[in-house]
Amino acid sequence: MSPGSRLSAGPRIGVVDYGAGNLVSIQQALTSVGAQVSFVRDVEALAGSDAVVVPGVGAASPAMERLRRQGLVDPLRAWLVADRPFLGICLGLQLLFESSDEDGATTLGALSGTTTLLIDAPTLPHIGWNQVVRRRRHALFDGIEDGADFYFVHSYAGAPRGGLDDETVLAETTHGGTFVSVVARGSLLGVQFHPERSGSDGLRLLGNFVDLVRAA
Amino acid sequence: MLRRRVIPCLDVADGRVVKGTRFVDLVDEGDPPELAERYAAEGADELVFLDITAAPERRGTLLDIVERTARRAFIPLTVGGGVRSVADMRDVLRAGADKVALNTAAVADPTLIRRCAARFGRQAVVVALDARRRRSRDATEPPTWEVVIKGGRQATGLDVIAWTDRAVDLGAGELLVTSIDRDGTGEGFDTELLLAITSRVRVPVIASGGAAGPADFVSAIVDGGADAVLAASIFHRRIHAIADVKAAMAAAGLPVRLVSEAVA
Question: What DSSP line would sit under A5-72, residue for residue?
Answer without folding.
Answer: HHHHSPPEEEEE-SS-S--HHHHHHHHHTT-EEEEE-SHHHHHT-SEEEE---S-HHHHHHHHHHTT-
